[in-house]
Amino acid sequence: MPNTIRVIDCTHVHIQAPRQREWEYVNRKGRHSINVQLVGDADLAITNCVVRWPGSVHDARIFRESRLFTEFQTNRPDGVILADSAYPLLPWVMTPFPTANTPSQMRYNNAHGRTRSMPNNTGLYCATQYRCPSQSPPL
């Protein structure tokens, strides 16, 4: 994808149920987790990581509350960040079409998905390597 400078996604790292505010850590799949935001570049390097939100928190909120969001709202990057449909569409954040109705929209969604897949898989690999050992199966 031309002009892509980063990709962003969140992944859930499973944890044991905490003693306090346990319900906040239950994600949409009913498991206890921390929702971790990862931002990567074309070299598969993680350039930004936010590890502080319980599993019940939506990806878009984590992004909106991040320093990266504040920085890029103030100082627009020279390029775009690719994100999935959980994120807001902004001048510097490109998401896929919810429904691809034309061949050009389908091509865009395919290119978007291919570009996002490598860093996304790297983040998922990292998350599965550090999952809670008492909980299986992996993410």
From TrEMBL:
<dbReference type="InterPro" id="IPR027806">
    <property type="entry name" value="HARBI1_dom"/>
</dbReference>
<dbReference type="InterPro" id="IPR045249">
    <property type="entry name" value="HARBI1-like"/>
</dbReference>
<dbReference type="GO" id="GO:0016787">
    <property type="term" value="F:hydrolase activity"/>
</dbReference>
<dbReference type="GO" id="GO:0005634">
    <property type="term" value="C:nucleus"/>
</dbReference>
<feature type="domain" description="DDE Tnp4">
    <location>
        <begin position="8"/>
        <end position="122"/>
    </location>
</feature>
<dbReference type="GO" id="GO:0004518">
    <property type="term" value="F:nuclease activity"/>
</dbReference>
<dbReference type="Pfam" id="PF13359">
    <property type="entry name" value="DDE_Tnp_4"/>
</dbReference>
<comment type="similarity">
    <text>Belongs to the HARBI1 family.</text>
</comment>
<protein>
    <recommendedName>
        <fullName>DDE Tnp4 domain-containing protein</fullName>
    </recommendedName>
</protein>
<keyword id="KW-0378">Hydrolase</keyword>
<keyword id="KW-0539">Nucleus</keyword>
<keyword id="KW-0479">Metal-binding</keyword>
<keyword id="KW-0540">Nuclease</keyword>
<dbReference type="GO" id="GO:0046872">
    <property type="term" value="F:metal ion binding"/>
</dbReference>
